[in-house]
Amino acid sequence: MARRRRAAETIETIETIETIEVVGGVDTHKDTHTAAVVDMAGRLLGTEQFAATGAGYQRLLDWLRGFGTVVKVGIEGTGAYGAGLARHLTAAGMELVEIDRPDRKARRWQGKSDPVDAEAAARAALVGRRTGAPKDRTGQVEALRMLRVARRGGVDHRADVIKQMKALVVTAPEALRAELSPLANAQLVTVCAGADADAAKAGEPAIAACLALRSLAQRHQYLSAEIKELDTVIDRLLKKIAPRLLEVNGVGPDVAGQLLVSAGDNSERLRSEAAFAMLCGVAPLPASSGRTNRHRLNRGGDRQANRALYTVVLTRLRWDPATRAYVERRTAEGTSKKEIIRCLKRYVARELYAILLTCGAPAAAAAVSA
């Protein structure tokens, strides 16, 4: 009789857990993730720490499910430390939301720790405050992002190499300085890469300068070849993902790649062109008070995407007759150049948003056709 009663209580407990709806929150770090779970009334049910490994992701998911039916999970840092966990939970069919870091006022009031941040993520996911749909990092746009990271690092390093060569030329012995100073960057690299210097005499400043410049010049050539190879791969991938985007006036491979990366594989997560404009930091923000009705420049958003739109605007200002006519008309109305460029970036964002929705993941194209 007692055994039957315990079995009945166990079944009742399982049925109760299955009917409870809960929301999870995760504060991510390199080696560990701290999770918290709250019920639909906002009551904290528990916190726990898990290893940032495949096995740890599964244990975290099992732990969340142990409190009831998981409605959604809020994760802080889905594009960095939380990328692996986000992929694991997405594959398990969980609904994910990206959580912004807690504001400074809240942190001053309640302090900071991993459990506190995880609980804040869970509560933010519950009420939908400062949340958004995370990017899908399993498609071609994610592959494009990785290639662009390598290319950007190569470009930055190559620029640093030129600066180092110029600095060495300035401080080189007079004869070497007089020979190399007039040369342009390309000529300087070619001449220095073929320099003949005896390493056995490296104790002499002139020979040491030649050796150092040759090493830097050969490094510059290697980086240039690496960048060229990455450009070929990136261009081929862009033509496969977004051929229409490359046909837009003022949009080249660099701009197209940045806008695709900013939108993500699941560009349908951007609910409207206004949301895309806010993401790129080109949506004007209200700054009205009393009888003053005005807007101010948005200095938030993805600044790299903002730079990409600025590049499109600059290109059209130089080559597009319609854009130049617009500038002349607004200038005659008394609008400043800065305000005109801000308006043009907003118009370009509206134009490119419709094209971005047809690129990348098949789901985005399906959403547009629907």
Please explain how this structure is put together.
By secondary structure, this protein is α/β, with parallel strands linked by helices. The protein folds into three domains: 2-132, ATPase, nucleotide binding domain (Nucleotidyltransferase, domain 5, 2-Layer Sandwich); 140-241; 244-369, no CATH class. It is 61% helix and 11% strand. The protein has 16 helices and eight strands. It has helices at residues 2-19, 54-65, 83-91, 104-110, 114-127, 140-171, 174-180, 185-193, 205-241, 243-246, 253-263, 273-279, 303-319, 321-332, 337-356, 362-369; strands at 21-28, 32-39, 44-51, 69-76, 96-99, 131-132, 285-286, 295-296. The strands form two sheets. Strands 3-2-1-4-5-6 form a six-stranded mixed sheet. It has a two-stranded antiparallel ribbon with strand order 7-8. β7 (285-286) and β8 form a beta hairpin. α11 (253-263) runs antiparallel to α13. The longest helix is centred in the middle third of the chain and has 37 residues, at 205-241. It starts with a helix and ends with a helix. Residues 7-15 and 361-370 have low confidence and may be disordered.
List the main descriptive attributes of the protein structure presented here.
16 helices, globular, disordered C terminus, single chain, Nucleotidyltransferase, domain 5, 8 strands, 11% strand, 370 residues, two-stranded antiparallel ribbon, alpha/beta, 61% helix, 6-stranded mixed beta sheet
Let me know the CATH homologous superfamily of the largest domain: ATPase, nucleotide binding domain
Uncertain residue ranges = 7-15, 361-370
CATH class of the largest domain: Alpha Beta
* DSSP summary: helix tally: 16
Radius of gyration: 28 Å
Total strand count, please? Answer: 8
Mean pLDDT: 86
**SS class:** alpha/beta
CATH architecture of the largest domain: 2-Layer Sandwich
